[in-house]
Amino acid sequence: MSEGKPKIALYWCASCGGCEEAVVDLAEDLLKIAEKVDIVFWPVAIDAKKEDLEKLRDGEILVSFINGAIRLSEHEEMVKLLRRKSKLIVAYGSCSYMGGILSLANLYPREEILRYVAMEAPTVENPGETMFKEKTMINGVELELPRFLEKARPLDEIVEVDYYIPGCPPTPQVTLKAIETLLSGNLPPRGSVIGASDKSLCNECPLNSTKPEKLLVKKYKRLTHAEIDPEKCLLAQGIPCLGPVTRGGCNALCIKAGMPCTGCFGPLDGVVDYGGKAVSYLASILDVPPEKDAVLKALEGLPDPVGYLYKYSLAKSLLFRKRAER
Ligand code: SF4
Ligand code: SF4
Question: In the 8-state DSSP scheme, what is residue 132?
């Protein structure tokens, strides 16, 4: 550890590991970054323990990058510790930023999830119906597991977050740009999304020139049920591509691979509820008579609206919270 270099930390909470992979995907650039900073804590890659983190002075770490949603009591404890030890906290990736894919589990009560995993999942055999326990005695020693919380939450519901890096996972280019911004000392306003674009994905999409000025859709189609012209705007073909309401910066990777945008970079500035914005946009371009049957028919190709429109942001959904409160 060198005294002169800024210290950084990386930590994962409820995460698939993809955000950790994304850091490794920086390849040679990771070595260049490692020359400029001291990585003092990164459980996936270096052997630093919680006690090492506790020994640091408060604010001694310049920036901590935290990926994954908050789902366990251990996550809460660790991110509070990192907040205390860090000048800047960055929510890295969609799960940390908006709850991410795993916050779709918020559709189900905690007990139902635990029961399914312990007893009902197709790969489980549990004839004694043994349930998870937070505390277990083994040979006179009490072992304790972290508590599985009521729901998955984005990082900024637990600690103050200074910056957000979007993506599922963030691309190496976005990550690099964000790290360079943070190390430059020329910091954007607190609370900003960094490393990505401030325009919608359509602006950088190679199919944008084929998107009609007045876009109207008669029926949404499932990708698996449609014949797609790869040279034409997917939304103009009825595929519910979320590029118009999603922040750009990913270089349209999914579109280039023939897939519609599903919104992992989240909303543009000023939008609070991503799914709400998406549903409003898709409804506004629907060209059907305003009758229930006609509308339902047009939406048949969107069979799981919550899973599609809130794929990465259910934990931040105002609509869903309102419903849950009721
Ligand atoms: S943002 Fe995506 S890649 Fe990163 S941890 Fe969540 S699910 Fe995995
Ligand atoms: S709607 Fe989708 S396919 Fe069409 S221009 Fe926008 S991002 Fe590209």
Answer: P
